């Protein structure tokens, strides 16, 4: 197994509470998650808590979107941690975290994706590293999160 960690950060010009609310509720993710647009017809199932600790989200989509599930395993005002499990196109488990901090220009968000790669994906990652595979999507997601947060919430 090969371990990986990819992080991206951005300062969003909005209140930390608004950013937290958009991340802490999986029903908000279609508005900003870069992977949601891989399959507009993707099926989504929400269970557990409505938001925060214990909230669960499962999806099943086309070959590009695959299938999997997420659960919020930690929810504090300054941090949200999500357990992520892919079922298709390959099985894997990882942790996704969002660290939030109030800064002069708004809210700093540090988005980290970390896990271990199985043998097959580990081989592929030697040619196409996880950094290259997911960092551009994370950057796109942070930009979309900033736009959604600024347009629909407090901009203190």
TrEMBL record:
It comes from the Bacteria. This is Uncharacterized protein. It comes from Nocardioides albus. The lineage of its organism: Bacteria, Bacillati, Actinomycetota, Actinomycetes, Propionibacteriales.
């Amino acid at each position: 197994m090969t371990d990986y960690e990819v992080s991206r950060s951005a300062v969003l010009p909005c209140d930390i509470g608004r950013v937290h609310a958009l991340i802490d509720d999986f029903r908000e993710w279609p508005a900003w998650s870069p992977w949601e647009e891989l399959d507009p017809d993707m099926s989504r199932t929400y269970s557990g808590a409505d938001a925060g600790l214990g909230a669960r989200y499962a999806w099943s989509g086309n070959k590009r979107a695959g299938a999997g599930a997420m659960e919020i395993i930690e929810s504090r005002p300054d941090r949200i941690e999500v357990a992520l499990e892919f079922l298709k196109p390959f099985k894997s488990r990882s942790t996704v975290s969002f660290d939030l901090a109030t800064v002069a220009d708004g809210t700093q968000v540090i988005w980290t994706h970390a896990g271990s790669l199985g043998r097959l994906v580990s081989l592929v990652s030697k040619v196409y590293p996880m950094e290259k595979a997911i960092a551009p999507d994370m950057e796109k997601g942070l930009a979309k999160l900033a736009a959604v947060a600024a347009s629909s919430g407090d901009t203190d």
